[in-house]
Amino acid sequence: MKIIVTGGAGFIGSALIRYILSNTNDEILNVDKLTYAGNLNSIAEAEKSGRYTFSQTDICDSQKVKNIIQDFQPDAIIHLAAESHVDRSIDGSRVFIETNVIGTYVILEAARQYWRGLASYKKDLFRFHHVSTDEVYGDLENDGSLFREDTSYNPSSPYSASKASSDHLVRAWQRTYGLPTLITNCSNNYGPFQFPEKLIPITILNALAGKPLPIYGSGKQIRDWLYVDDHVEALLTVLKEGKLGETYNIGGHNEKQNIEVVRIICDILEELAPNKSFGMVKYEDLITYVADRPGHDQRYAIDASKIETSLGWTPRETFERGIRKTVQWYLANEGWCQRVLDGSYRNINSSEGK
Asked: How far apart (Å, rounded) are the C-alpha atoms in residues 294 and 298?
């Protein structure tokens, strides 16, 4: 199978590419603009594979996107390219609309025109898989309720609103034009190679540097945590076995309060990195409560029974194992972390992205 992955230099996209190259014989074209969160260092091993190629391309560039698709002749497109940080969307929403809404439109139109021109047998095999988030559903009361595939959309932030918009576009292209699409909505991902602006990596790296561990509000916001390798296995399962036109929720069955997650990380660091500087006694001493984020969703929780029942996928990692593996990875990969923190990874992107 020949697969285009958009956003393949990002956290989830790079994990997907590593997984595909290690577990299948599929051929990959990685299409990524290489914004601040795109890091080719995360897929350095892919460069050694004869089944991997890279194109530094803005998905809003319609002519270039059309040319790439026509030249590569994919059997599938997995669309991950997106701006995804809620705080950044609050501070500046325009780029989220451009990338997540306009970019998705451009990819859909290019895919539709390509698919329409395929021979009938290839037409039947083609798939467009759009990767979205549980944040499009809004939030839940702390009453045991879960997000289902038919839960009404109620996005709270510019980020989640832009992702909800892109989901609606994909469904419209499927219904109006017959484009063979699949949508997945996932819960919060964590694991190796995550850009240190999200809760788990920033907690690990700030703690090691003796910096404050900022917690929004009371820290009692609840998230369902999904280990990234579980997620990408689910994505490939949906791509190859999912029913066209369907949506599948992907969750980790790991609901945790944000403050609980931070304290778990601190406890693991006490064990794995007990030698501290900066005059602190315990890593938890760095926890600092800050003003809550505007419109902050209080609880996310995924009902993943559909993908489990119909496709046989279930997450392999418990949170306890996954978070320990994640902390161990950051401790063992100081070079990657330092290049991200000081911005030198951008030089690698610049030289390898030409």
From this structure: 11
Residue 214 phi/psi, 5° resolution?
Answer: -75, 135
Tokens of 269: 């660091």
Specify the pairing of strand 287-290 against strand 213-216: parallel
Q: Go through 78-110 and write b for each residue having 16 or more CB atoms within 10 A of its CB, e for each that does not.
A: bbbbbbbbbebbeeebeebbebbbbbbbbbbbb
Looking up residue 15, the CATH number of its domain turns out to be 3.40.50.720
* Domain-located, residue 200: no
Residue 206, in any domain of the structure: no
How many domains does the structure of the chain reveal? 1
pTM here is: 0.93
Query: Which pLDDT tens digit goes with each residue over 297-338?
Result: 899 999 999 999 999 999 999 999 999 999 999 999 988 888
Give the C-alpha distances (Å, rounded to integers) separating 297 from 127, 201, 211: 32, 20, 26
Catalytic residues: 134-135, 159
